[in-house]
Amino acid sequence: MSEQSSPPPEGPEAFRTPVSGVDDGAHRRIGPRPLDRPSVDPAQAAEFARPQGVTGAFTPPSQATNGSSSAQLAPPPPEALVSAFRRPDRGSELRLQRPPGEVPLGEQPAVEPVFWAADAERDPWRDPGTGAVLGPPADPATKSATGTDQSAPGGSGALLSVPELLFGRRVKPLALGALAGVALLLGVAGGLVGWGIAQLGNPLTSNVTLSEVEPGKERAPGSIAEITKRVERAVVQIEVRTGQTGGLGSGVVIDGAGYVLTNNHVVSAAAKDPAASLKVVFADGTKTEAKIVGRDARTDLAVIKVSVSNPTVVQLGKSSSLAVGDQVIAIGSPLGLSSSVTSGIVSALNRPFQAAGEGQDPPSTYDAIQTDAAINHGNSGGALLDSTGALVGINSAIASPQDTGSIGIGFAIPIDFARRIAESLIRDGQVHHADIGLNARSVSSTSTDGAQVQNVKQGGAADKAGIAEGDVIVKLGDRPIRNADELSVAVIERGIGETLPVQVVRQGRQMALQVTTQSD
């Protein structure tokens, strides 16, 4: 009867190998488990066993597997392979190769040395069944001088200084200061060297002291700069606002009481709208309200008044003393640019000019001074000065294709004519002009150029003088008449009640008549 085997141990005891059949409790090194070799099935052994007569791994070439002599076996291996890989002789020592000095397996002591301490009964590294538990650090000796554990989660140690943090704990403050001083000296030396190289490498730069600017040159009397300095404060900008719209123009102060001469078309919108705003802006930026004294649509002139003390007044000159080619200066606010100065010459004198009136105002007609000084929108009402700085004209209009701007053809109302209109407006607030009571149109033929009478007002000056419809007026007084504009200008420049000789062409014959002007 076979001996009944005890059940296999469980837990840590399964990893211990008793020595001599007795566990001495010293926790010896774990030994190998005993081998369990089951019995071999005879059928499988017969199937997978070596053939009869074969005793080793290498069979002679004359033998065949399973007793068959027809199979072609591989040639025998070389003698060197057989000698290297064959089984050792039965009488030789059977052991694995070990490092030099290692004790052979059969010579090991019966009792193995202790591998771990006796208090490692529940060591998780030795017992797979032990649960994972966070414990103290591996080295229990890491404690501070005060006895506190420096590696504990809640502990705090001494803070490091900047030298200790950057250079460790072996740097003296004196050495750190010396290092900083050396770095500063190196930086200064490098900057000086770089500056020197830069100065030597650029031949265009050098140390230089520029001479001081000399005082401004003396401007000769009569120069444009000198005239502008004297007169620009007498030229003002005029602003008109009516509802959401507005306009800009220029004007000239002609009297110390604050009277400003300008064009009618500059202030006509303010005259027709009681709610309109009319302001004057002086060269120094002072802005003040203005009132309309009077305006004359037929000559495109108007006078406004501002309440200011001691304004700069322009000196009035004589337009009759001008000659074609004389230098002139225009001052005004073209396109809203106040106190703008342009210069040119007199291009023509006594140029008959007629412009359409503003709104329902009649056309304006006058003998204009033509100039090539640049005049644009906003110059209207500004000053045209001669070479002495005296006012010789009021800038009024420009000729340009499709109203594109100045092309060097500007027109100004002569001051000799404008002075008479301004005096009448300041005195009476209105102006009456001479009239002969007819309408005419320009005609030109191979023999005659003049103004042909279209109709005659009954009871008027022309009717009383015997001028009939269809007559062509070729001369009024001492002025030749070449078109209807010249006739209008020749009449308006005369005084009321003045008797003038008139030459007309009637049915090819010239006739001399006398006409006495009437008030319009």
From TrEMBL:
**Where is each PDZ domain found?**
422-508
Biased composition range(s): Polar residues: 60-72, 143-153
MF-aspect GO terms: serine-type endopeptidase activity
Task: Give start-end of the signal peptide.
Answer: none
Matches recorded under InterPro entries? Chloro_Bact_Ser_Proteases (IPR051201), PDZ (IPR001478), PDZ_sf (IPR036034), Peptidase_S1_PA (IPR009003), Peptidase_S1_PA_chymotrypsin (IPR043504), Peptidase_S1C (IPR001940)
Which keywords appear in this protein's UniProt record, sorted alphabetically?
A: Hydrolase, Membrane, Protease, Serine protease, Transmembrane, Transmembrane helix
* Amino acid composition bias (Pro residues), ranges on this chain: 1-11
Q: Where are the transmembrane segments?
A: 174-198
Which region ranges are annotated with the description Disordered? 1-83, 126-156
Superkingdom, taxonomy of origin: Bacteria
Instruction: Name its GO BP terms in alphabetical order.
Output: proteolysis
What does the similarity note say?
Answer: Belongs to the peptidase S1C family.
Q: What is this protein called?
A: Peptidase S1 and S6 chymotrypsin/Hap
